[in-house]
Design a protein that fits this description.
alpha/beta, Rossmann fold, seven-stranded mixed β-sheet, 9 strands
Length: 158
């Protein structure tokens, strides 16, 4: 585990990111990038591990793959957000046609694989800086920022 501390608005805070992906190379690569930015990264290979980690730890943001063995990513999303409705969630997937589902579910972002790391880091920073009110607005279907990075590499916000 990485114990680096980030400075945010003049105060020290440790931001904890739960990375959920069944591919060990994705967990290693994305985890290394996030840890290099000073985040504490907790990794899970499936939904059951993710829920156990989220129950035992304060999680600030979740990076969640959709295609996993056992419990699906969407089922994991539902369980994680029922435990902590205001946790920021970024869907990371190679699965196509998830834009409207992600938006309707209240996810903060959809980043399609292969991941663009500068976009990933900008999105993580934006969602961690987001207010609880903005997250709540998104969950109840009000207009709010939604970050989208399609697999083609063209970024748009919708």
């Amino acid at each position: 585990m990485n114990s680096k501390t980030r400075k945010t608005s003049g105060r020290a805070s440790q931001e904890i990111i739960l990375l959920v992906d069944d591919d060990p190379s994705v967990r290693e690569m994305v985890g290394r990038v996030l840890a290099g930015e000073g985040y504490l990264v907790l990794c899970a290979a499936n939904g059951a591990e993710a829920l156990a980690i989220a129950t035992a730890n304060r999680i600030d943001l979740v990076l969640l793959d959709l295609h996993m063995p056992g419990q699906s990513g969407w089922d994991t999303f539902a369980d994680l957000t029922s435990q902590n409705p205001l946790v920021a969630v970024i869907i990371i997937t190679a699965r196509s046609n998830q834009f409207f589902t992600s938006l309707a579910a209240g996810a903060g972002a959809l980043l399609e694989k292969p991941l663009d790391f500068p976009t990933l880091l900008r999105t993580v920073r934006a969602l961690l800086a987001e207010s609880a009110e903005a997250r709540l607005a998104r969950l109840v279907g009000h207009d709010s920022a939604f970050h989208y990075q399609p697999a083609t590499g063209k970024e748009r916000r919708g």
